[in-house]
């Protein structure tokens, strides 16, 4: 039986433009995409270093995002500070458990799972692991898709601030937790964008060649 292996695009001298998605023929020296003129690379430059830096920064910001007040409310009855978890507990106790589950999932669980998923991808690529490349690629696609949904709490706070200020019922402003939370969401999204999923398959290619 003949030893048949599928050649990768890089082995065939083809590069994918990161700007417009055009498949281009690789050549000597620096090249640019003929359609959008973006610089062409076989792999995203410094992908692992950038993703690690952004992910570590997101992990640092995750704790204050959940511990600091995300919303500060001032009324004639006094001032109240609410964290993400205190809001979830209030919604649960008031009978709005479906909304409490949505807020908990989008604002606590999803960012944590995104951090853990990116950590798994980066560690396995850094160690040169060829374990489950298809599953890891699917995991990366899921992380990309769910990224914007983590901003649910920020949208809710912004909407409440606009409504309350318009009706002059009270004074509501975003707390420091909202800034930290938004930082976590943005950093994890950019970390996922900086990660090159083709690195997952590089070790598989090396194992096949041995």
Notable features of this structure?
single chain, 210 residues, Butyryl-CoA Dehydrogenase, subunit A, domain 3, 3-stranded antiparallel beta sheet
Short description:
This protein is 58% helix and 10% strand. With 210 residues, it is mainly alpha-helical.
Account of the 3D structure:
The chain has 210 residues and is mostly helical. It folds into two domains: 1-42; 47-209, Up-down Bundle (Butyryl-CoA Dehydrogenase, subunit A, domain 3). It contains seven helices and five strands, in the order E-E-H-E-E-H-H-H-H-E-H-H. It has helices spanning 47-67, 84-93, 97-126, 133-146, 152-167, 176-194, 198-209, and strands spanning 14-16, 23-25, 71-75, 78-82, 171-174. The strands form two sheets. The protein has a three-stranded antiparallel beta sheet with strand order 4-3-5. Strands 1-2 form a two-stranded antiparallel sheet. Strand 1 and strand 2 form a beta hairpin. The mean pLDDT is 80.
């Amino acid at each position: 039986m003949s030893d048949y292996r599928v050649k990768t695009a890089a082995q065939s001298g083809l590069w994918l433009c990161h700007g417009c998605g055009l498949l281009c023929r690789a050549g000597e020296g620096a090249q640019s995409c003929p359609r959008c003129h973006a610089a062409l690379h076989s792999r995203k430059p410094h992908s692992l270093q950038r993703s690690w830096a952004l992910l570590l920064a997101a992990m640092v910001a995750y704790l204050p995002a959940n511990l600091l007040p995300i919303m500060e409310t001032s009324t004639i009855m006094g001032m109240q500070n609410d964290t993400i978890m205190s809001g979830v507990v209030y919604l649960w106790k008031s009978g709005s458990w479906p909304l409490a589950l949505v807020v908990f999932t989008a604002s606590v669980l999803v960012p944590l799972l995104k951090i853990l998923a990116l950590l798994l991808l980066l560690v396995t690529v850094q160690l040169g692991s060829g374990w489950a490349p298809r599953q890891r690629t699917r995991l990366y696609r899921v992380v990309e898709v769910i990224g914007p949904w983590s901003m649910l709490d920020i949208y809710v706070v912004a909407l409440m601030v606009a409504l309350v200020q318009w009706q002059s019922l009270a004074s509501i402003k975003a707390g420091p937790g909202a800034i930290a939370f938004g930082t976590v969401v943005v950093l994890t999204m950019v970390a996922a964008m900086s990660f090159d999923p083709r690195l997952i398959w590089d070790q598989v290619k090396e194992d096949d060649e041995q």
